[in-house]
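We store chain and fold; thus.
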Amino acid sequence: MTIPATEEVPITIRPQTASPPTADVPADAVEDVFELSGFAAGYGSFRAVKDVNLRIGEKRITSIIGPSGTGKSTLLRALNRMNDLIEGAHVTGRASYHGVDLYAPDVDPVEVRRRIGMVFQKPNPFSKSIYDNVAWGAKINGFRGSKSEMDDLVQEALTRAALWDEVKGKLGDSGYSLSGGQQQRLCIARAVAPNPEVLLMDEPCSALDPIATLRIEELMLELKKSYTIIIVTHNMQQAARVSDKTAFFNIRLDSKGHRTGYLVEFSPTEQLFTSPKEKDTEDYITGRFG
């Protein structure tokens, strides 16, 4: 079955033209897209992250920061069930998307990934043309329109990714012909082509130079008008620049010395970086560890 969309459990993909929330909108007026309660994820006997309780609001940028090994990427991939593709992956607790349990037996993970797109750490264009890289994102999710409709979709996706003006005269060229920053924006265009609601970004700027990084950050702020964005980043300055809220994860050792990531603090970004509630958070952002 696909994700239920009944009167009892409504899920609606908002029109991309909807007005984005602004800083003047009260926090409690922003609808939750995700709600995690007692959530944990791991592989085999290893628990990568546990005890996660947080809510992520619509059309906001949420950053996830913390030292390596705290389960940040595992948590991100759990939100669109990418971990299902890894043998032995498992979750406990609840992760809901607009009130629907993402791991309920009748939820189709393919439909989850259509609604919740992902951009990876390193640009990963396919060995296809620029046009076909973007078109693939729509075709794999069931697009059955005409050639002219596909042309319009490709142009729209590249425009959303702020790449159209740079590539409109060379859509037949290989995606590999682009610079690293352009390749990452091409991957973003591919991710938005199926018209998702959420974009998950796993360190999308870690392989880019400072100029390309700035361009991606500017793009994220523009995309926030249409998408809910969750980003894992080791760059605390980046989190401070682009995100509305920030979650800090740390590592805890159990009695057997096994490392597990856990959520320490989840606060508005400015608050977390200027007056954190927890000492571990303060120690991390001031460079005492990590």
About this structure: The radius of gyration is 19 Å. Residues 152 and 179 are 24 Å apart (CA to CA). The chain has ten helices and ten strands.
